[in-house]
């Protein structure tokens, strides 16, 4: 059943982070249960689960997950306020993950066996790699949203979304370096980024901007390292 769980988690990551445009999220927050995109979003999740599982014998499981996903999202939209958006974001994701684990476990007699096949190992790799891209970018954005950095970077020109893509690439590189046992390359990557950033920080002479960049870098590398270690831990069960 572990392979089934991995498929469901991958479907969740794609449905929640890759196939949900920002305009859908804003529309849901504004109209709440009246937003058509809430129902489209849940329908996409159900369709993705059917697509990845590709077995109608799991229909009850998939529909149950879809219904609970709708309930969790609906409660989040109703209860969250502007000041509590970060809390509800993480609570929402945690509840979705718990739902996947519990329903998969109980609807199939708790038959969790850690005997990975090549397919399940590859799926684990895809999940970890996918998580380090857009999902982690969104998580970081939620975490640092308490600081208004726009005033500090107002006159600094930069490429659109450049920071986001740099962060994604650095996390994927950290992931590759760690799972291939090249920790020294991670240190080199951190050093290289520090050298490139040094000129920006000394020219701005802004302590707040320096702290903001430092926090963002540490969070990005920290999530990448934890994800890599989690992958290595689970891979040992193969």
What features would you describe in this structure?
With 238 residues, the protein is mainly α. Helix content is 76%, strand content 0%. It has 10 helices and no strands. It has helices at 2-18, 22-31, 36-53, 59-79, 85-107, 118-131, 134-143, 162-179, 183-204, 207-235. It is flat and about 55 Å long. The two termini are 14 Å apart.
Q: What key phrases describe this protein's structure?
A:
mainly alpha; 76% helix; 10 helices; 238 residues
Quick rundown:
With 238 residues, the chain is an all-alpha fold.
Please report the total strand number as a whole number.
0
Low-confidence blocks of residues: none
**Portion in strands:** under 5%
- How many angstroms does the end-to-end distance come to? 14 Å
Tell me the series of helices and strands, N- to C-terminal. HHHHHHHHHH
Tell me the radius of gyration. 20 Å
Question: What is the mean pLDDT?
Answer: 85
**Class from helix and strand fractions:** mainly alpha
Question: What is the fold's blueprint, element by element?
Answer:
Blueprint: H1 2-18, H2 22-31, H3 36-53, H4 59-79, H5 85-107, H6 118-131, H7 134-143, H8 162-179, H9 183-204, H10 207-235
Helix pairs in contact: 1-3, 1-5, 1-6, 3-4, 4-5, 6-10, 8-9, 8-10
């Amino acid at each position: 059943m572990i392979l089934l769980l991995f498929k469901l988690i991958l479907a969740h990551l794609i449905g929640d982070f890759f196939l949900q445009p920002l305009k859908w999220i804003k529309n849901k927050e504004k109209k709440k249960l009246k937003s058509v995109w809430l129902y489209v979003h849940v329908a996409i999740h159900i369709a993705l689960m059917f697509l990845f599982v590709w077995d109608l014998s799991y229909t009850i499981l998939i529909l149950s997950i879809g219904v609970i996903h709708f309930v969790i999202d609906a409660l989040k939209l109703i209860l969250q306020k502007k000041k509590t958006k970060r809390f509800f974001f993480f609570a929402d994701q945690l509840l979705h993950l718990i739902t996947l684990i519990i329903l998969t476990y109980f609807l199939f007699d708790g038959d969790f066996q850690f005997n990975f096949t090549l397919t399940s190992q590859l799926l684990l790799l895809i999940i970890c790699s996918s998580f380090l891209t857009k999902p982690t970018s969104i998580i970081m954005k939620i975490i640092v949203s308490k600081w208004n950095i726009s005033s500090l970077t107002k006159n600094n020109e930069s490429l659109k979304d450049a920071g986001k893509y740099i962060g994604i690439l650095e996390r994927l590189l950290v992931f590759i370096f760690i799972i291939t046992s090249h920790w020294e390359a991670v240190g080199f990557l951190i050093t290289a980024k520090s050298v490139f950033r040094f000129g920006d920080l000394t020219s701005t002479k802004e302590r707040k901007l320096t702290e903001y960049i430092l926090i963002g870098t540490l969070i990005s590398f920290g999530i990448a390292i934890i994800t890599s270690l989690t992958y290595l831990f689970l891979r040992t069960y193969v």
